[in-house]
Design a protein that fits this description.
The longest helix has 17 residues, at 74-90. Helix 2 (36-46) crosses helix 3. The chain is 56% helix and 21% strand. The radius of gyration is 16 Å and the shape is globular. The protein is of the alpha+beta class. The chain has a 3-stranded antiparallel beta sheet with strand order 2-1-3. It has a single domain, classed as Ribosomal Protein L30, Chain: A (2-Layer Sandwich).
């Protein structure tokens, strides 16, 4: 079995990005209403962050006003944002996430 070289890895990642389209950064914005537990639920269940990373993202947003969550292909990013906003609306929280192009 051969070990991938950096050139091979770069070619594979470039071809995946070409297939998936451009990636977008998901940004979490702080608010003073949405509970910590709910934010952590969204980050772990919808964006699939592990617990410590979710806590770090949540506190960064709390103290700095916003935080980077992750980068995803546009369609997947939009799907997860819609799911997060829908879940927040059902819970009557004003949770806000936005997308930025990379």
């Amino acid at each position: 079995m051969s070990t991938p070289t950096p050139e091979t890895t770069r070619e594979i990642s470039e071809s995946w990005q070409a297939e998936l389209g451009p990636f977008y950064r998901v940004i979490l914005h702080n608010d003073h209403v949405t509970t910590v537990d709910f934010v952590l639920y969204v980050l772990t269940q919808i964006f699939l962050l592990d617990g410590p990373h979710a806590v770090q993202v949540m506190y960064t947003a709390h103290y700095q006003g916003s935080a980077y969550v992750q980068s995803l292909p546009l369609g997947e990013a939009q799907r997860r944002l819609h799911r997060a906003h829908y879940t927040a609306a059902l819970a009557k929280f004003p949770l806000r996430l936005t997308l930025e192009s990379e």
